[in-house]
Amino acid sequence: MAATILDGKAFAGGVRARVRDQVARLRADHGVVPGLAVVLVGEDPASTVYVRNKGVQTVEAGMQSFTHRLEASVAQADLLALIGDLNRDPMVHGILVQLPLPAHIDADLVLNAIDPRKDVDGFHISNVGRLATGQKAMVPCTPLGCLMLLRAHLGDLSGQNAVVIGRSNIVGKPMAQLLLRDNCTVTLAHSRSRDLAAIVRRAEIVVAAVGRPEMIQGDWIAPGATVIDVGINRVLRDGKQVLVGDCDFAGCAAVAGAITPVPGGVGPMTIACLLANTLTAACRIHGLPEPAGLTA
Length: 296
Ligand code: NAD
Hints:
Elements: E1 4-5, H1 8-30, E2 35-41, H2 45-60, E3 64-70, H3 76-88, E4 94-97, H4 107-111, H5 125-132, H6 141-154, E5 161-165, H7 172-181, E6 185-189, H8 196-201, E7 205-208, E8 226-229, E9 233-237, E10 240-244, H9 249-253, E11 258-259, H10 266-285
Parallel strand pairs: 1-11, 2-3, 2-4, 5-6, 5-7, 7-8, 8-11
Antiparallel strand pairs: 9-10
Helix pairs in contact: 1-10, 2-10, 6-7, 6-10
């Protein structure tokens, strides 16, 4: 049985179109234009590309985009002062500090300085706590994108056995919380888990967020399972750099019921969810109803 390919690129296009429509309505009916501020410290090439893409897609969605580029040597106090300005700026509804930050900067301190209502990455400790306790939160973009794909493919997730591999604060932990909130039975596996293959074999939903190229093998996957591959790994193949996920795509696709490809699966959903979160933040800040289907 060949797996259904979950086309994240097409799905993300649909999310962006819905955001664009809602932004146009917000502007026409209430005079509100959502604004997203992205702060980039240093010149990491991958981060620079991400930030440029975010800016382009923000403008395409009809929102305002503000990019702040700071030297890698910026003093922590100056970065905190900028965050304070953005917190107070009524044109800004979302603030994203591109990670990683240079070693001399305390990333937790900076992330927790963001107004939680404008925390479109969902990394502020109060949003983490809100998500964990089932309260309305800003939800991290990548897990939100995975959840949207799962709900679109499977419908109600209640009672499903879900295994999340990877326990990072950015992907694995919030993903596990979201699946728990959708009534899955959740196992959160990590680098110290014993017999990972046996754990994964029990799963009806597998979310891989490890950062190890093609680690998850086809014979770990239960027949018919839904596999969400978050991994983005650059490897050399025949002298060329290619992107692969954390799953051996061909092997897993031969057994799974559905699977996301890399590239073109979870990746495009992340920026689409950033736009959705910025729209949600603008609605909440202005006390307006939130658009349906764009939050967790
Ligand atoms: P991370 O390095 O912070 O966390 C990796 C996790 O994997 C850790 O919790 C660790 O315990 C676990 N792990 C490591 N080796 C393992 C092993 N052998 N067995 C089981 N678990 C193991 O990474 P991250 O930030 O969560 O990212 C994970 C992957 O997802 C990376 O490839 C990253 O590039 C990708 N990513 C993609 C997107 C996207 O938009 N698609 C967004 C964020 C991250």
